[in-house]
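Justification of computing resources. Each target in the renewal requires a structure prediction run like the one illustrated here; the chain below, 342 residues long, is used simply to show the kind of job we budget for.
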Amino acid sequence: MKVLIGGYTKKTSKGIYELPFTGENNDARLSKAENIISVGGPTYFQKDGDLVFAINNAGDEGGISAFKLSTQGASEVDHYLTPGASPAYVGINREQKLLYTANYHTAVLSVFSYNNDGKLDLITTTTHKAEILGPRPEQTDGPHPHFFDQTPAGNLVSCDLGNDTVDFYHLEKGKLKHLAQYKNEAGFGSRHIVFSKDGNYFYVVGELSSKINVVKFNEDNWNFENIATVKTIPEDFTAHNGAAALYISKDGKYVYNSNRGHNSITVFKVNDDHTLSLVQRVSTFGDFPRDFNWDANQKYVVAANQNTDNATLYLRNAGTGTLTPIQKEIAVPEGTRVLFTK
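Resulting structure tokens:
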């Protein structure tokens, strides 16, 4: 098993790094990070077999690049770049070989197809418009979609930080059809979303509010019911914080999010009524943890600290949901995306 970490390339990072994973339980460790893909600003990426699809910040242009991994190294096999900023998020459907990108700066959502060789084809795009923008400084300049991926029923969903909205789409005959919209509270800063195991609830994290909103919804008639909202940071924490990544365990029992500023991962238990109860806030032992992730068995968790160029490895208790740090100060530059791989 290995861990891939990529991020910004503003200081010393050259792109995506591979860290070998050895040992088990409390003796598990990540070894030295080695650069395996050289690319500008791979702040998010996905993997399908020997293909890696990464955000590419190529100076005056931005987009995504496809790389093929081999024993000889990684080679770029295709890219799709347009003038301006690169996207913030890449989603993937490995069965249908589709990619979904959300561009925070240009407000463009894109859908791509790819083949076994990594060849990319743009299927369609849509652009979010300024609707009722939130009141915070980060929102007043326009819409900012920060997430674009699939729903449990196979539709698509985007979180828009500028508009405080969750928008649902269906890919129909090569076009994106807007189906419904859920509006978060003003200033929420909708960023990432996960769904309950039964597909009847979603949890959306607000970057600007440091909150998670629990919503009951129906993908047939698009009824939404606001169930509850919880803070991801302590009430008495007054310094700047930006809530970032959001994950739910595969058994549906625990929800996790990272806090950039409070520099922690928050663990919530999912109650029988799908509300959330605080279980733990654990330090990431660094500054600005944008992403974290777990292995296929969700036994190990790695958090990447962007500003302090380090990562932390945790052992996860599946019964209680808690995280125990077992390795700190793992050197990796400017990390913003974590992905376990074989």
